[in-house]
Description:
Strand order of the largest sheet: 2-1-11-10-9
Largest sheet: 5 strands, antiparallel
Oligomer: single chain
CATH class of the largest domain: Alpha Beta
CATH topology of the largest domain: Beta-lactamase
CATH architecture of the largest domain: 3-Layer(aba) Sandwich
Radius of gyration: 20 Å
Number of helices: 9
Helix content: 40-55%
Order of helices and strands: HEEEHEHEHHHEHHEEEEEH
CATH superfamily of the largest domain: DD-peptidase/beta-lactamase superfamily
Number of domains: 2
Number of strands: 11
Distance between the termini: 29 Å
Structural class: alpha+beta
Amino acid sequence: MRKIIVFVLVGFVLVLAFQQETRDRLRSLIDPTNEAIFVSTDGGNVQYVKNAYRPQPIASLTKVLVAYEVWNRVATGRASWDDTITIPQAVLDQITIPNSATGLLYAGETYTLRELTDLMLIASANDATIAIAYMLEGNEHLFVERLEARAKSLGFDSFRLYNATGLPTEDGMENEATAEELGKLTIALAKDYPTVFETTSRPFVMSKNGTKLLATNALIPGRDFAYEGVNGLKTGYTEQSGHSVIVTGENDGTSYVIVLLHEEDEEEKFRKARELIETYTK
């Protein structure tokens, strides 16, 4: 009996040592200038936080707020997934940043709200995002005002929005928010509109001309850094914001939300996100 107790104690000590080593490795992995927050949606318990309360440029993570607004309007009957818009040239003229993500929209084409939302969330299509703004409010400026009001209604004070896409403005201004409030926004989206994951868990979306547009979130099953259980959510990048990602999913029965902001390398953000999942859900 004494030998059994000794073996159990030794095993327990080894497990604790492994967990501490994993946490130490995580701390060395995350640069002090980056923002990282982990939130367990099993009650919203914050497991890891770093620089999470300082507003930072958020680039295309803005589109998570757009998604909340879209799902809310559909749920309340103010919009339908089958609503359509014929793409005006004005939508395309607003994409002025070279090589920014698009859904390959062309003026005169007709899209449903569902098609545009899929392009926005899977391929991070900026043209589709602006088209959503035009469909729902007639122009992007009014839609941004609605997004700001939505953020306030959810209790968020850090959101500073200049557009719906997260792209830099002509004078270099960028949308901002804190990692904490992005995490809370994601938790609200998951709780209120869980069907969003039917879209964000897809590894690609097809454009109207038949081009396969890959999901920008490479942690989605079927993508380069696939991790089992990941079902979303959104990536972002500008030169000022760096590489950012919000990751959602479930691991060992624990659902999670991870926000990483201002990474210097695209692959590194996915590697760090995996490390966070493995550290705090096992």
